[in-house]
Amino acid sequence: MIKVKKLLRANSLRWQLVKRFLVILLLLLITMEIFQYFTMKNYLYSSKEQILDARFHNIDTDTFKGINSYQGLLQNSSKLINAVIDENVNAAVIDINGNRIDGRTQVKNFYEIEDNKKSIKKLEKPMPIPGLSKDEYKKLLKTKGTLEGYKLFKDKNGDLQIIGFRKIGNLNSPVGLLQLSMSAAQVEDILYNQKNIFIIASLLILIIGAIVGSKVFKYTLKPLYNMKDNVEHVDAAKLDRYLSTDNGQIEIDSLANAFNNMLDRIDTSFKEEQRIREKMRQFVSDASHELRTPLTSIHGFVEVLLRGAAKNEEQLDMALNSILIESERLTKLVNDLLLLNRLDQKMSKEIQSENIKDVIDEVIPQIKILLGERKIKLELDDNAFVYINKNQIKQVIFNLVQNAVRHTDEKLGEIIISAKSSKNYSNKYVVLKIKDNGTGISEENIEKIFDRFFRSEKHRSRKYGGYGLGLSIVKSIIDAHDGKIEVKSEVGVGTTFYIFLPKEVAER
């Protein structure tokens, strides 16, 4: 009973398919029955018509044409009727005015009557000769041709009869009609029985179709049910419950493949969310630490001043200078964080075609201040044009050179800046390369250098300075330009940054 209720649920796919199957089956059955009904009806009535035609042929054509007057019609009517009448066929002669001048019947119909509600008797009654209206007879007399075909007519007893007509006399000016009729009750009984058989057979076929269809659709939908069972067990901790993609049904296999791809995307999204949360936690921790350091220093110097150091001019100058330095460091940190935030939001920027050589030439004076005794070498193409925001790319160059200065020897350090068209990536980029001969980056740290606040353990001292935001800013600026940045490094040999800047504006 429970299974039946499940099957009959309006929203059940199995029940929906069964219903549609039964509707299609019913339409096919009805179409077949309509075709069969009218085919049989036409055949049965054609058979009756052939019987009437055979009776008409008992009278030769010359006899029909030889009667050319009303008097002749009266004299020969009995002869005509005797030639065609039998126990199945009634006959009548109609004059030109539509009046029946002679008619005879030998056909008897059986009628069942109830006698005092106790017994049933069958009585024979002669079948009445059907009579059309005078106007209908006159219309037939005026019709051209031999009046092939038949008419169906209900007599006074309510019985259906089939009637045929032939003209008496000249076809164009007949003097009367010979009417033959016979009962169509047998035809109607056959058609009625056929309808009953069809209804019973259709009900049986629909019941069998519902049972068989339900079983077939259950088997067909089995992969879908299995898929549903597997999906119900999928949660955040079980994203590896992949569905089978070999079910023998193209649509189900495609659905399973799409679901598996969705699981992969969800799993990737969860891992990415977890990574972002961890980075955010680390970011908050590092930002808090970096903000606390200058604030602690400022707070300490203020306490010293409050304790009386303000009266000592030398101590006052030292404290104020220290406060100024720490506040500048704090301001730079906040500005860097705000810049990263703007870059993350991908705020619109003004870009235009720039010669990268001119951009580097503009930033060289600032770079030389950082270099000290270190050497710098420039290898620049004269006409390397790129679509960039000039100020942001100048900051990228400055940050990378500043990073190189921090990690190279003050006297033996050497920095190379080059800009040339790339032969890779379909020649779509200009490659800006910044190379140093510094301490290099270990393999375990090279994947982390663009993380915010990342600094290797050996570079966390004040000697190297910075908050670990410089390379993060570089990466964000390059990403905002739809460019690429790559790094190669070897500990003790040096580091090389490759920046790919687009020659054309990227389509968005």
Automatic annotation (TrEMBL):
Bilayer topology: Multi-pass membrane protein
Catalyzed reaction equations: ATP + protein L-histidine = ADP + protein N-phospho-L-histidine
GO molecular function term, any single one: phosphorelay sensor kinase activity
Keyword field contains Phosphoprotein: yes
Cell compartment(s), UniProt: Cell membrane
Domain HAMP: 218-271
PANTHER family: SENSOR HISTIDINE KINASE CPXA
Protein name: histidine kinase
